[in-house]
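Hello,

Following up on my earlier ticket. Below are the two sequence lines again, exactly as submitted.
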Amino acid sequence: MKIIVCVKQVPDTWAEKRLDPATSRLDRASGDAVLNELDEYAVEEALRIAEATAGSVTVVTMGPERAAEALRKTLQMGADAAVHLLDERLAGSDAVGTSYALATLLAAREFDLVLLGSESTDARTSLLPAMLAERLGLPQMTFAAQVEVDPVARTVRIHRQTEAGYDVVEGSMPAVVSVVEKINEPRYPSFKGIMAAKKKPLETVSLADAGIDPEQVGGDHAWSAVVDFAQRPPRGAGVVVSDDGQAAHQLADFLAAEKLL
Amino acid sequence: MAAGEPVAVHRVLERDLPSAEAVELLSLVTEIARDQMAPRVTDDERHARFPRDVFDVLGRSGLFGLPYPEQYGGAGQPYQVYLQVLEELSRTWLAVGLGLSVHTLACFPLASFGTTEQRQEWLPHMLDGTRLGAYALSEAHSGSDAAALSTRAVADPAGEGYTVTGAKSWITHGGYADFYTVMARTSDEGPRGISAFLVEAGTEGLSAAAPERKMGMSASPTAQLLLDGVRVPARRRIGAEGQGFPIALAGLDTGRLGIAACAVGLAQAGLDAAVGWARSRRQFGRRIIDNEGLGFQLADMAASVASARATYLDAARRRDRGLRFSTEAAVAKLIATDAAMSVTSSAVGVFGGYGYVEDYPVERYLREAKVLQIVEGTNQVQRLVIARGLAGSADPQPAPANGFGSAAG
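Thanks for your patience. The regenerated structure is below:
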């Protein structure tokens, strides 16, 4: 089985994020950057499927130069190859542009399965898996908490996580599958993996290389734009409720007012 | 800032490392420490729970054989890299950093003095991350005077093996380890009558007493190891009969570097916590770090950490280059563990009353620091090593009656 995993480098999940006032874009340069946590689950799942089916895992990212660090980490975890879509004109792409660019890149390649994390910890839109499936004309199977593949029948069956429990969804391969963190426990790279990763192919691809139309990507061609933003207001003081017999009512009223009940 | 709020200044340290792979290795270790160790260290220490599963994670990541040759499954890393890994682990959890140091020490005799056949047969299993080691030198009545040990290994008349009987003290991982490197007496010739053995856990007659109840590092089991007629095949003797003491001393030279690195990690943790607190704690309308008196105290702490780190790295780099490092290792152990003691004590002071309660980790750091001045040669033994070097009698071979080494285990 040939599996492609799409990953993203995001600002350190633990760090405070800020928007750059000049561009209204996330300031990616000032902090540490890491492989999007949910993508680690997608990589892990891909590695497990590949190990079970004697398959291969290629990891793809679109992002600035330093995004190669995220690719290197997936190679250290055990992925076989990596592709870095790198072009200045991609900066500021929204989900529509990103899905177009990745779909164009993927369409030219051979694969049985595309895996992604169900969202990135910076944008949190969860749009990309669905858009990518639509653009590739493939079954979209999102929010998978369990993935089973049948390489002979060429089907994939997932447990799609819902608020109530899960749905069992089955589709034909190739397919696009996004995963949630319940699915597995991602492995850490090992020192041997770190050494082995140095010898693995990491291919850098430009818009022209991939046949991507520059008029459909980047901030200038985005379908959505940030008009304005403001700092989150500082946390106010809370209300202290002391129990004079009415505390339960007050708590219930508070929760109802906050639409938590 | 109110009590109970997190105080975290866990900066990623920019380290002086010799290669790109070492940078990646340290970054992996930092990630494991942050995700797998930091969330549970307080609770596991409080309840004296040995985190064997954390060692499994370290093992799977290839950290069980960092300084040993790749042909036996090690990582072939220089000591300056291996020790910085220990430092980074100890910065989050001393019991884990020190445990890895003890494991690495337990592999040292076989890796350095074993025959090719012995190394080929056993070393890969000791380095592959599935099996944890322990080092059994000290005894109840032979601590600093390690050469006075009395555990007996009696050879069979046929020469097929030994029967080992005695009790070893202060054994880190005692009862939890998968293998033990044991020093036992094969003749009455003092330091020349000691031999080294590799003993498997589960061998009949081998058992551990209940773990000691310690002042700190409660998550790391320390126990007496009891050997009651334990049969050890002759091929499990490391080195020649009578070579055990020089082997033990060579191991301790290296082990001392490990303790020094662990001490720097602990001191760094104390400094991190103190700086975090001093930046956020406000008194008299300003941050307490802006008071010169306190700022200078933090500066002294930072200077202690930096100089201790430089000292162990100097010794490590000498070792990596094949230069003599015995005196430098003793200096590093002395300087770094004293630094850990003073920095963690100062950290408690910086926190004031909050430093003395268990809501913050600094009181634990202070309790943990003390043991580092004692293990693998008390700091007075380190002074002895340094002084003998100055006196021109640094040859470790004719180990004097009042020898080196102590509770490595």
